[in-house]
Structures are given as C-alpha cells and as structure tokens.
Amino acid sequence: MKDGLYFFRLSRPLNVLITQIAYTLGVWLANKKEFTFLQEVEFWYGMVALTIIASTGYWINDVFDFKIDRINKPHRVVVNAHLSVKKVLTGYFVAVTLVLVGSFFLQDISLFFINLTAIALLFGYAFWLKRTTVIGNMVIAALTGLVIYYAGMIYGFGLPLIWTGIFAFEVTFLREVVKDIEDIEGDLKFKLSTLPIRAGISITKRVLYMSLVIFILSCYGPMIMGSIIGLEPSWVYLGVSIALVQVPALLILWRLPRAGGAGAFRLISTYLKVLIILGMVSVLFL
Predict the structure, then answer these.
(1) What is the pLDDT of residues 212-248, one digit of tens each?
(2) How many CB atoms within 10 Å of residue 74?
(3) Which of 86, 159, 177, 242 has the fewest beta carbons closer than 10 A?
C-alpha cells in the first residue's frame, strides 16, 4: 500500500491528469464536439494506454535522475529514498510490457506503433536526450502534441484539433526550457548540456522571449487558416484567446527579462502549466 502511494507520487498525478484532459479534449474536438465517445471502448483503451505511458515516463526519468534531483528538488525525491531503483525498474518494465501487449491486441496497429514510439522516446529522453541541447525539449513538446493527435488517429482530424496540438507543442517547449533554467545548478554538477548551460541564461531568455512572441501570434492562426479555407471566423474564440491565453502570455513575457534565480523560473514554469489549461479552454470555442 505504501509503495503504491509512492508510485502514485512518482507518476506526477497532476501532469498525468493534464494529459488525460488533453486527450479527452482532442477526442471531443475530433468527434464533432459530441460526448458519444464516452460509450466507446476505443476511447477508454487510449485513455489507459496514455495514462500508463505518461506515468512510466516519469518513473524512468526519476530512475536516471535521482542524483540530480537531490540537488534540484530534494523534497521530491522518491527513487532511492522511498523506492529502490530495482523496484521502480521492475514496475516500469511490467507496466510498459502490459500496455504494449494490450495495445497490440486491443487497438489499431498504428496506435500500437505510436505507443511503442512514445515509450521508446521517453526512455531515450530519460537516458540521454534530456542531457542534450534543445533536442530533448523538442521531443517532450512533440510527445505532448502527439497526445492530441492520438485522438485524431481514432476519430479523424480537423482544424481545431490541429491547432490544439500546435499550441500544446509550443507551450510545452517553453516550459521545458524554463525548467532547464530552474534546474541549472544540479545539471551543471552532472555536466549536462542543456540550452542554459551551453548558451547561458541570457541567450536562453531571448529564445524563450521569441518563442513566446511566436506562440502569441500563432493564436491568430486558426482565424487566418479558417478564413483561407472558407470557414466563418470564430470571434468568440478570439475574445477568449485574448483574455485567457494571450494576456497571461504577455504577462509572462513581461516577467521573463526580470526573472532571476530558480524560484522566479519555478513560478514562470507554474504559469506556463496554467497556460496549457487555459489554452485548452480557448480551443473549445473554435
């Protein structure tokens, strides 16, 4: 029972919940904004697969990073503090094997390969990619966008779904780079090669600044693309996007140059997590 609670804590339940909400939102958009999918087994197979893949991704990440986490997040260390490395690895390999076997027999073969690719990339990220410059950030951002497109593989793609995936990619990339600045102390000690270490915090801030500007401008993308293909502009979406997404993004843009120290970047990281949720709300009106 106690080990189960530690595995639950290791899974980052709030982040996994965001993944589940993103997947459900993607399915809702792909299913023409109807809730009939709640009665379909395909939806629930996907939900279970994504939940296990997301959770085990955090497990394997903490196995490889528990020494760094003792410096960056000492109060959050579970591996080798409450759960042994052997126990976490055993749980990891049992869980990913079960999800792959279940996916092979219960889902379309294309979804099986997506699951397999996601598991491999999360393992590769924990083992090596997160220690690289930008590539690891891009991989996690792409996997977040893939959660949205996962719904499209089951129910079909449309303009709202495509832009939801793009927004998820953009905000996740921003947050991953901010977390690299936040964790720079431990990353330096273990000779990682993240963007803040290779280029310096000042240049990394410029990258974040430009990425935020691109993100804000991209919020107008659905309106522009919709008009090109002859769709009626959604002024309600635009108003909600300005109020709930673009204004908060501008506030982050204002705070970024003044940010200094791990605490300030931890706060910006939290703001970006909230921005992901607010972005999900905005696309409901597309």
Answers:
(1) 999 999 999 988 888 888 778 789 999 999 999 999 9
(2) 10
(3) 86
Amino acid identity at 53: I
Q: What is the DSSP letter of 233?
A: P
**Residue 10: HSE in the Cβ half-sphere, 13 Å Cα cutoff:** 32
Report the predicted TM-score, pTM, of the whole model to 2 decimal places.
0.91
Q: Where are the alpha helices (DSSP H) in 73-131?
A: 85-106, 109-127
| Contact (Cβ atoms closer than 8 angstroms) between residue 276 and residue 196 | no
232 DSSP 8-state letter: P
Alpha-carbon span 242 to 219, nearest angstrom: 8
Q: Which two tokens stand for residue 72?
A: 């960056």
Count of residues in the chain: 286
d(CA 243, CA 30): 25
Tokens of 94: 């049992």
Structure tokens at 208: 């974040």
